[in-house]
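so my prof wants the structure for this chain in the tokens format not the other one, which i didnt know existed until like an hour ago. anyway here's the sequence
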Amino acid sequence: MTAPVIQYNYLEDYLDKVRSMGRFAFTWAEIKAQFEISDKALNQSLYRLKVKKKIAQVRKGFYAIITPEYSNYGIPPPVLYIDDLMNSLNKKYYVGLLSAAALYGAAHQQPMEFFVIAEKPALRNIKSKKVKINFHVKKQWAMEDIIQKKTDAGYIKVSSPELTALDLLFYQDNFGINKVVTVLHELASEMKALNLTKTAKTYSQVAAMQRLGYLLDNELRNEKLSNALWLVLKQKTLFPVPLSTTKEKEGSTDDKWKVIRNMKIESDI
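here's what i got, hopefully its the right format
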């Protein structure tokens, strides 16, 4: 049996097929399985498409398709291919932190970087002139706290507003408390007291809950949400924790939340 004849533009035709399925990405392995072609010839074809700015390499073996509306950016936004990427790596994940907040309209300004929480082992961050994807590791999470959000490329997994808020305090080193408070002011309107209580019951980082409770109570003056968190924390033994993890542990301690006021809040709102 003779091998099928590979046309010069076979790869561009394949990209059209991928896009017709609503996807914005493909893998090297997919192409290799689709066509009987040498690795060298395939890599040459992919290189030509990169030069023509038809595709962009996100990481080794994974490519995003550049459609006309994203030609000025040189790559589509990660929200359109993150699910394909994580599936190709066989990794459990969710879009979180500032990226999740932005999807709830609470980013204040569109974050320049994309944030993903994934299971161990840790993934290397993706950083180039066109895209920045930061991966953070978490051992486990409750699936009830993950929401399926629709995009132009299908569905992606996103942390609920309540889980997003708690994570922002847990990973605060990446943003600083002032940035977190600014986001919380807008995210609070998307949070529900009952859901916050449920999420807090399975959240393992007590210090993050203390900080969030303190901010909801003293900065946002949101009694409903702070009480929802207190329902869980009042049953635990609380130890003093600094509000900011990047500053000295000096300052007065809040009697209720046991949070050391070691910095002054300066929100953008």
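also thought this was worth mentioning. The chain is about 35% helix and 15% strand.
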